[in-house]
């Protein structure tokens, strides 16, 4: 009796399927569990119960059009109830051992038939959409309510201890994993959450399949980096990776280091990086905690893939950069110092306030100041003149104050070097704060040289065609985006 | 004065800004021209080697492109660029790789056939066998296509490697192969296509990734083009059937997209016997996006099947014109118009006309617009006799709340009038719809009618212009329906004036314009001045001319500045 009560209360709080009416002959007795309870010897499940069980699994494997609620209403209702019953069975160890495990092949097939489907494009307005209508509603896959129980069932099946590694392993093949990973591109966040949990558990449970799963995830990311540039499940996959990475043994195997260099670092350059940056950062930091020598590669990668005309992404990069720098060994940073400080000074002198502000935060970090001090002969001549000048002229009051504070800090570090750097203005770095006019003048000299050379080339070869230079003058952003905006100048 | 070009390049490459470095890189051909081949080898290439490690992808992209340009400067020795290009072809960044492949192809254009066989083929095999870097293998696939034809006795090696790559585990490589298999087939002997490529194409068409299967579709079409009817039947047709039933709608969509071309490629016989049935299923697909694209292809597809087979498609149009998804209906309109030109008149009239009429009254404005557009084609196809059934519906479309629909309808009417060229039909059926442009609320519709007026006058002559049509203009002018309508009518009169004789202009048109010169609205007054001006060019009668002049003269003192201006202008010339 207790069991009956149990079966009515679903753990997910879903409404129980409608009680059946006697008129429906095909309907099996609803409480399969009750029947099972009467079985004295669990080793020998009576044929009729087994048949019922198989019939239900078969029923749930049938495809229906879940996008149209008006079709097959009765069957869909029946299906939900069967799924619920199958789900309840998982709670009874006896039945799992004697019904579920022996028929794992059919069960996995049922799951595959349900979830492996071409992903739909969720449409905002299905019919009669007039142009210009905005619709901010969350997109919902109409099939989701019918898919969710299958996912829930799959999850519980994996969580359950009885189906052991050996019996599960044969179903989790390469193509299974590949199809499973493709589902991560789903636009339905709840689906991705289930996928994540299931894959995570599969990875934990199926030790012999781990390498294969990792490789398939790799391919997924390669596609994202090299071909599609967009993948909805990137954040979820990185979540799984984070826990995989934390399980890596130290020292890291070469395979994992390659993964760090060919996947984790290039993932930063993808246009849609914002959507998974938080998870990516976590993975990066986990890697660095296993092997701090990787930090310099990451710094190099960040500087290489620095965002262009995307200030929000720049702020993210700055956050990550500072965190990564703290892991770096100072002596290893040497080859990167010029690029690093030039980047920072560009951010500080740049037109975007938040970016500049975020870059200024670096100087509140003690470890960063140690780096700065260690490479004084380079950093001072670069920083001091620029900081000194924009400290006087910056348009934003708060930033001007912090620039002045920074000036004082630099002075305190080494008064002499500060003065020397201030007086000995190396024009090479000053271009950052030069106005457009002066920049143009400098440019003109070398442009003149090119012009002469082109003339000579023409003399030498009358068929010579003048080179087409893609970026003219200072309007790089405007030209680049096809909006020739006179207000944009390069800093 | 004379600079060392190599030093200038290096100096410019020292720049901090990436875009300046990219610029500098694009000027490399200046340097290369001046240095000559020896120094290119001894200075420039070693310098480029150093760049590979440290430069940004943008610069390397430019480098990859310029290496192709340098090859044109030193065509005989361009093989020295290959080491660099091979490295770039294995780079991580996709655009750099692709550009490197393009430049390698340029270099190969300058090489002799034995060099291709001895240096390039080994390079391709090397790239294709690079197990640690899938990027190399992808580049190798792209290189195989343009170079296969010149590989001489090494062809077999390439074929073997290509088919080997089809069974790759890395999906990126399989995708590359699926894209290129149709292309490489163009360069192969038919026997090799059938023996080597078809088996792997079959395999790719069953790939576990729908992306791979999807990319196969285009290749399928390209291969179909080079096979004859019998070969297509045994090799390609099964693949088409299989893809049409693919579980991924993306694959079915890709197939629908190329279906017309596919029909053209396999020829009428197969199209008639098999493709119509397959295509019918795609048109009934459960996924609406597939239907949208399928209907779009249908408009072209019908040209590649025998006319007598078209009646298999007509019943589908009934379904499509009632589709719940408006874009399907939108595209169906076009098909109905097209197919009517291919079917017997009575048949289209009895089967299709009603669908089109229903679509003209659809809820969706784009459907109505397309229906109105196709109505012209349809009506022209079934002939003028049947127009009277159609015109009431077109008239209804002119009352549509959306101006785009009305504009399309207006255009249809005009097109019809111009193709029919039958004054009887025009006067009875079309004219009443056409003149509705005079009273339309949207300027777009009014100017649409106005712009086509000269062509109509040329077709239906002065009798119509100064008869029925003029009276409509007068009606508009006399009713106080807002100045914009009156201006439009005035311009219409101007158009008439261009086509008529002097006496007609004087007797029929001038009195109307004369009245308008005294209108209360300034804009109408100055438009009237313009019209009067064009009238005066037609009229010979001195007395009337004086009248016109005097009337304009009176407006010189008009309180409105613009009227004054135009009056002065008119009198000056």
Automatic annotation (TrEMBL), chain A:
Residues 1-31 are annotated as: Disordered. InterPro entries: PP2A_B56. This is Serine/threonine protein phosphatase 2A regulatory subunit. GO terms for biological process: signal transduction. Residues 1-13 have a biased composition (Polar residues). Residues 14-31 have a biased composition (Low complexity). One of its GO terms (molecular function) is protein phosphatase regulator activity. It comes from Paramecium octaurelia. One of its GO terms (cellular component) is protein phosphatase type 2A complex. Pfam families: B56.
Automatic annotation (TrEMBL), chain B:
The keyword Transit peptide does not apply. Residues 261-504 form the TOG domain. GO terms for molecular function: protein phosphatase regulator activity. The keyword Cell wall biogenesis/degradation does not apply. InterPro entries: 2AA_helical, HEAT_type_2, PP2A_Regulatory_Subunit_A, TOG. It comes from the Eukaryota. GO terms for cellular component: cytosol; nucleus; protein phosphatase type 2A complex. Coiled coil: none annotated. Keywords: Repeat. HEAT repeats lie at residues 44-79, 197-235, 236-274, 275-311, 313-351, 352-390. PANTHER family: PROTEIN PHOSPHATASE 2 (FORMERLY 2A), REGULATORY SUBUNIT A, BETA ISOFORM-RELATED (PTHR10648:SF4), SERINE/THREONINE-PROTEIN PHOSPHATASE PP2A 65 KDA REGULATORY SUBUNIT (PTHR10648). This is TOG domain-containing protein. The lineage of its organism: Eukaryota, Sar, Alveolata, Ciliophora, Intramacronucleata.
């Amino acid at each position: 009796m207790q069991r009956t009560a149990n079966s009515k209360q679903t753990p997910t709080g879903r409404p129980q399927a409608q009680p059946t009416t006697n008129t429906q002959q095909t309907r099996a007795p609803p409480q399969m569990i009750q029947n099972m309870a009467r079985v004295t010897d669990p080793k020998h499940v009576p044929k009729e119960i087994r048949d019922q069980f198989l019939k239900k699994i078969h029923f749930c494997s049938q495809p229906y059009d879940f996008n149209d609620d008006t079709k097959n209403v009765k069957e869909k209702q029946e299906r939900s109830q069967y799924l619920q019953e199958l789900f309840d069975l998982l709670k009874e160890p006896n039945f799992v051992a004697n019904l579920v495990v022996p028929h794992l092949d059919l069960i996995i097939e049922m799951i595959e038939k349900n979830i492996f489907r071409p992903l739909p494009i969720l449409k905002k307005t299905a019919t009669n959409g007039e142009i210009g209508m905005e619709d901010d509603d969350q997109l919902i896959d109409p099939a989701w309510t019918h898919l969710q129980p299958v996912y829930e069932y799959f999850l519980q099946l994996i969580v359950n201890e009885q189906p052991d590694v050996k019996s599960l392993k044969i179903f989790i093949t390469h193509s299974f994993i590949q199809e499973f990973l493709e589902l991560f591109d789903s636009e339905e966040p709840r689906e991705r959450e289930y996928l994540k949990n299931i894959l995570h558990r599969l990875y934990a449970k199926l030790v012999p399949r781990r390498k294969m799963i990792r490789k398939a995830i790799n391919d997924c990311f390669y596609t994202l980096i090299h071909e599609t540039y967009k993948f909805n499940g990137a954040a979820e996959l990185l979540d799984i990776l984070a826990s995989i990475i934390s399980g890596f043994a130290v020292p890291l195997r070469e395979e994992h280091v390659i993964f760090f260099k060919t996947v984790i670092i290039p993932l930063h350059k993808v246009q849609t990086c914002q959507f998974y940056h938080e998870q990516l950062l976590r993975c990066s930091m986990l890697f660095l905690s296993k092997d701090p020598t990787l930090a310099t590669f990451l710094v190099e990668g960040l500087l290489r893939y620095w965002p262009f005309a995307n200030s929000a992404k720049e702020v993210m990069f700055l956050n990550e950069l500072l965190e990564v720098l703290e892991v770096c060994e100072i002596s290893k940073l040497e080859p990167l110092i010029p690029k690093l400080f030039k980047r920072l000074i560009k951010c500080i002198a740049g037109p975007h306030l938040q970016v500049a502000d975020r870059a200024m935060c670096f100087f509140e970090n003690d470890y960063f100041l140690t780096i700065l001090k260690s490479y004084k002969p380079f950093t001072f001549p670069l920083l001091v003149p620029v900081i000194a000048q924009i400290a006087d002229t910056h348009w934003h009051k708060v930033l001007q104050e912090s620039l002045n504070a920074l000036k004082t800090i630099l002075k305190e570090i080494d008064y002499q070097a500060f003065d020397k750097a201030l007086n000995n203005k190396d024009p090479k770095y000053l271009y950052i704060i030069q106005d457009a006019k002066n920049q143009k003048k400098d440019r003109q000299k070398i442009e003149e040289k090119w012009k002469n050379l082109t003339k000579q080339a023409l003399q030498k070869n009358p068929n010579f065609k003048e080179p087409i230079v893609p970026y003219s003058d200072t309007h790089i952003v405007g030209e680049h985006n096809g909006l020739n905006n006179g207000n944009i100048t390069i800093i | 004065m004379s600079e060392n070009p190599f030093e200038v390049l290096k100096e410019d490459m020292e720049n901090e800004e990436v875009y300046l470095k990219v610029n500098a890189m694009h000027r490399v051909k200046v340097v290369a021209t001046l240095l000559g081949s020896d120094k290119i080898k001894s200075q420039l290439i070693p310098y480029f080697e150093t760049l590979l490690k440290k430069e940004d992808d943008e610069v390397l992209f430019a480098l990859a492109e310029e290496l192709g340009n340098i090859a044109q400067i030193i065509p005989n020795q361009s093989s020295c660029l290959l080491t660099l290009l091979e490295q770039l072809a294995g780079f991580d960044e996709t655009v750099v790789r692709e550009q490197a492949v393009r430049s390698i192809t340029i270099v190969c254009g300058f090489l002799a056939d034995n060099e291709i066989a001895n240096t390039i083929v080994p390079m391709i095999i090397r790239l294709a066998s690079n197990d640690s870097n899938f990027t190399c293998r992808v580049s190798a696939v792209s290189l195989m296509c343009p170079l296969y034809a010149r590989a001489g006795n090494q062809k077999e090696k390439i074929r073997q490697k290509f088919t080997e790559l089809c069974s790759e585990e890395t999906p990126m490589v399989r995708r590359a192969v699926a894209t290129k298999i149709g292309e490489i087939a163009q360069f192969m002997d038919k026997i090799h296509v059938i023996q080597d490529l078809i088996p792997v194409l079959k395999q790719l068409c069953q790939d576990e990734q729908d992306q791979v299967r999807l990319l196969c579709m285009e290749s399928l079409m390209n291969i179909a083009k080079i096979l004859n009817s019998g070969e297509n039947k045994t090799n390609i047709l099964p693949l088409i059937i299989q893809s049409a039933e693919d579980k991924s709608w993306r694959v079915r969509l890709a197939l629908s997209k190329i279906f017309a071309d596919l029909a053209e490629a396999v020829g009428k016989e197969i199209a008639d016997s098999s493709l119509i049935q397959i295509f019918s299923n795609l048109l009934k697909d459960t996924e609406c996006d597939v239907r949208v694209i399928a209907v779009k292809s249908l408009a072209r597809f019908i040209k590649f099947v025998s006319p007598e087979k078209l009646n298999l498609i007509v019943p589908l149009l009934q379904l499509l014109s009632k589709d719940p998804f408006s874009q399907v209906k939108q595209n169906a309109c076009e098909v109905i118009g097209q197919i009517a030109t291919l079917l017997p008149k009575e048949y289209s009239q009895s089967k299709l006309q009603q669908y089109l009429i229903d679509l003209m009254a659809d809820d969706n404005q784009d459907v109505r617009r397309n229906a109105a557009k196709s109505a012209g084609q349809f009506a022209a196809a079934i002939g003028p006799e049947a127009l009277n059934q159609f015109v009431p519906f077109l008239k209804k479309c002119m009352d549509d709340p959306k101006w785009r629909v009305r504009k399309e309808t207006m255009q249809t009417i005009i097109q019809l009038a111009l193709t029919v060229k039958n004054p009887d039909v025009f006067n009875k059926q079309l004219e009443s719809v056409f003149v509705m442009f005079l009273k339309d609320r949207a300027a777009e519709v009014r100017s649409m009618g106005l712009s086509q007026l000269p062509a109509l006058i040329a077709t239906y002559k002065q009798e119509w212009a100064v008869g029925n049509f003029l009276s409509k203009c007068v009606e508009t002018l006399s009713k106080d329906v807002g100045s914009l309508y009156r201006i439009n009518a005035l311009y219409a009169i101007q158009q008439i004036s261009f086509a008529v004789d002097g006496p007609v202009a004087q007797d029929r048109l001038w009195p109307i314009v004369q009245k308008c010169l005294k209108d209360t609205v300034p804009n109408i007054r100055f438009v009237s001045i313009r019209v009067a001006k064009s009238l005066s060019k037609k009229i010979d009668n001195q007395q009337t001319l004086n009248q016109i002049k005097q009337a304009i003269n009176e407006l010189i003192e008009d309180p409105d500045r613009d009227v004054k201006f135009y009056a002065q202008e008119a009198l000056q010339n």
